[in-house]
Write a structure and sequence with these properties.
Layout lengths: L2 H20 L6 E8 L5 H15 L12 E3 L2 E9 L5 H7 L8 E4 L3 H11 L5 E2 L13 H14 L5 H20 L5 H11 L6
Parallel strand pairs: 1-3, 1-4, 4-5
Antiparallel strand pairs: 2-3
Length: 201
Amino acid sequence: MNIRNKISLLFLIAIGAMALATKPAQAHSFNAVLVLPLSGGAAEARQYRQGFIIATAERDSHPDQESDGHLGGLDVYVQVADGEAGDLDKRLATGGKTGKPDIVAVFGPEATLERVRALLGGTKPVLQPPGRTPFANPGQPGVARFTAAYQKAYGQPPSAAAAQGYNAARRIATAVRAQGGVDDTAALRRNFEATARGFAW
């Protein structure tokens, strides 16, 4: 290799290194807060959460993980907040042990959804579950997988509330994977809207 080719090669390597160095780092994890009707319906709220957690264990999980599971290829830390509590604003401001929420999923009445949106002021994407779920079609392979996984984990068949929690997590996973992260709030909102009318598990 002559000197000119060597210089050209070194130049290309330097340009590549600079491009990698200036590329913004992608987060490897995110925080999801589930706003649940804990005060008024603890059993239903528990089922929402259980269905959500089933989805976090489906892909990319490993035995030594410190997170609550994975969604969209990233570690996810799941926190729960009572949608009927007076301190909801504090829970949304601080998140949990891992920091402020990146995505908030609201299970409950429209009034709770509007309250959450007002508290967040448009700074974070808010998902209103459930969207349309395929749960009524037990012959669909994804529904059968979810039902079997839920039965194995909790010793009983999933309820409609559990299916809504699972569907919410799958919608989040789809949105996050499409973006490669949670930084683009507007894109996440668009992706949530795209799956609101239903999609196959």
